[in-house]
Amino acid sequence: MNRPPLASELNLCLCHSCGMACDMTEQPHECERCGAPLHARKPDSLTRTWAYLLASLVFYIPANLLPVMNTSLFGNGSDSTIMSGVLEFWAHGAWDIALIIFIASIAVPGIKFVALSLLLITVQRGSFWARKERSRLYRFVELIGYWSMLDVIVVALVAALVKFQALGDIEPRPGILFFGLVVVFTMLSAMSFDPRLIWDKERDQEPENPQDEERMDEVPSH
């Protein structure tokens, strides 16, 4: 099947900093415009992505079990975890803040864990399954990553609001630190994944008919 040549076949590489198409045959591999180091692919993409993802999963446990803030109202202080804070805000009628904290602290990390694990497993298995949809899934993970710090911002805003109104005092607790680490490592995991790995299978190995892939594993009955 006729197709235009690939960038790798022409020894071309886009600079990650300025986007210039650079010739990889020249030494050293640096962008001639901005001097940034050039990489045809993200180095050790799968290994680094798995490492960052597993680290974020480890930090996610204390982030949910340890208190994230201490609320002191009229002399009565109490520690709150992420989930207890969501329930407390909901019980006091602040359903909008409760919803933001739930989405940012529980739903978004959970979606990123599942999505990145799916991408990693399917790439390692060399799967042809839903490659276009998996590429869209990766872009979605990148998009929601920008909103991952909402929970930390909400805690800071609520603390400032309570102190401003002289209603009491709110202090951060160790759980917010672990949650910040979860956010950082999930973002590093998404940044380390190379979405081009989804399309790395040779075109001549791809089934011409999507139904052929299902038939390959079928054993004829006699």
TrEMBL record:
Where does the record say this protein resides? Cell inner membrane
Residues covered by region (Disordered): 201-222
InterPro entries per record: PqiA-like, PqiA-PqiB_transport
Keyword terms: Cell inner membrane, Cell membrane, Membrane, Transmembrane, Transmembrane helix
Acidic residues bias: where? 207-216
Q: In terms of one coarse class, where is the protein primarily found? A: membrane
Q: Which Pfam families does the entry mention?
A: PqiA
Residues in the signal sequence: none
Q: Which GO terms describe its cellular component?
A: plasma membrane
- What parts of the sequence cross the membrane? 50-69, 89-122, 143-162, 174-193
Reading the lineage from the top rank, the first entry is Bacteria
Identify this protein by name.
Paraquat-inducible protein A
Its lineage reads: Bacteria, Pseudomonadati, Pseudomonadota, Gammaproteobacteria, Pseudomonadales
